[in-house]
Structure prediction request, 158 residues.
Amino acid sequence: MSSLTDEQAGVDLKAALEAFAGHEIDAGTPAFETNAGQVVSRNVIILHLPPVCDGRELLDVSGVTSTLSTGNRTLLIKDLLCPKEFGRFFLEPVITVATPASATPSLLTITHSLVFDPSLHGNANVQINIFSWNIDGTPAPNVPVNFRCRVPTSPILM
Prediction:
């Protein structure tokens, strides 16, 4: 059984989509990189200063893990990246979020630190530390965790 293509049926798909959207659709090359973003910072001491906007590449990594029997887990961002992403320095602000993926009540805390590589003279990795806790404050072992990390990056130029 054969079916008609849009051309054979006399349908101009682009025109139909533009009519539906109410504006012209430009399907050309995007004007920005797919991982480009805007990092906005504000001085929390001198509040009347305007925000500082800095265009940076942003890396957004997410995944699923679990805490160990000790109630913690340490992750390195580079262990989670595709090989093409390795030529980067990592910058603040690093935003990390972790949520327990369990019906059992538990709490999570999370910290991060930039890992300096002296041979590259820059922060070449991000370490994320996830801690799980029982409601009474004792470490909770083996808690499934969904996590996400967003970090500004810049290419390593050699």
Notes: The longest strand covers residues 52-66. The CA atoms of residues 94 and 151 lie 5 Å apart. The chain has one domain: 33-155.
